[in-house]
Amino acid sequence: MLSDRLNNRLDGRMRGEIMSNSMGWILLAFALYLLLMVVVGAVFAKKNTNSEDYFLGGRNLGAFVAALSAQASDMSGWLLMGLPGSVYALGTGQSWIAIGLFIGTVCNWLFISGRLRRYTIRANNSLTLPMYFENRFHDNKRILLGVSSITIVIFFLVYTASALAAGGKLFNSIFGIDYKIALTIGAVVILTYTFMGGFLAVCTTDFIQGMLMLIGLLAVPLVALGIVGGGNIAGTLTQSGVDSANFLNIFSSGSTGKFSLVDIISQLAWGLGYMGMPHILVRFMAVKDEKELNKSKSIAIVWVALSLVFAVIIGVVGRAYLYPTVLTDGAEEKVFIEMIVKLFTVDINAPIIGGIFLCGILAAIMSTADSQLLVSASSVAEDIYCGVLGKKADDKKVLTISRITVLVIAVIAYLIALNPNNSIMGLVSNAWAGLGSAFGPLVVLSLFWKRTNLKGAVAGIASGALAVIVWDYIPLVGGQTLGSVTGLYSLVVGFALSLCCIIVVSLMTEAPSEEILEEFEDVKNGNNVA
User: Fold this and answer.
1) pLDDT above 70 covers what percent of the chain?
2) DSSP summary character for residue 513
3) Residue 515 burial (CB < 10 Å; 0-12/13-18/19+)?
């Protein structure tokens, strides 16, 4: 007994020494990676001559960059921290979210991407989603522009905060840096290259980050599985404190609980959010041409399928691989980080490779935060300042306002993220529901139902956004929110309500003008569209 304790102490001391010796290499990998991101921002800063360059890269994205940029900006730290953490804690039943997201991704690329690109060109070369709504419905009073822009800024504050919080937890977990200092480092780097380089810098860094994410997702769980041994997974899971049969059952929640129909619907509903995500939709608008867009579809669908499957595998394999360590009390979201650290500093002496894979997690975080900052900036500068307020500004002034907005949004999101107890999964869930409910139904109907009109569009955005706020934030039942009482994801409620409001209000009010209907038919038939 005494010898076992002594051996454990010696083993812990040896591991501590190994970690100490490895930190230099991991730190070097991080420093080089962060420097590369800043250099990219500086290079593309010189190429931004007007607002279209800054927000859409001159509509000149290639297939690979468009595909990986769209998916990397979508998945964020949620893919490498939130989803694996949920699976680690509650089992493979959490993979219904991944299934829903995969279906949503496929539908978005197959049905939304091409027509949205064509329509934004036909609708007076719209640079942003709010501008597209205004031009699509000939909103001379700019009501749509104001409502949609404010909605974007509100929910993107929460979304950006989730990414910054993930970055803080990453640096804190690896280097032991105080969470607030770690949060500040990540925020400053993201802000720097987004501030300087705009859309092309963001898309180029997202491409690099998307490749890093995919390599890490594939390599780490496979190597860890080889060390644990496939035949030992079930037994080790049981030793870690869960019922392995239930843990590995997609229809179970936790170690013994069964998934209800409401649970499955709520998780599958995540896929609905794709149709309303401005930072994803803007990639469709920016692709060079239809040929490149068709290439992007295949690349993106393969990338997201592999990424989601392996994110779930990380949660399962990670629980077995890290045992006897069991992560609890919110530390579950660090499972991938802990796997990489143990794998490349203890089991395999290759800390520089471990550092590169850890950069993949940082990549996931940064690729979403930068996109959200840029979309928020475009909403303020192009849509609110020039559009709603009617301020006349040349391209140089618009760029200046955009960069100031990036700074302001980043600071506010930083303040929201200061609480280290914020759940990455929770923050993403609320923002995803808000944006998906407000914009998803309108994007779909504006592209495929010509009877949609301006009043229906306003009703749809307002009802979808308000439904999520009421459902998730206002305690209406015994001090609890409706979301807590029912267990139903707010995106289901918000999306359905928004869809119904658009259809009912559009049918009860005047039909669109002949000019609007003609534009719709042009896009539908591919006429007069570049």
Assistant:
1) 75
2) P
3) exposed
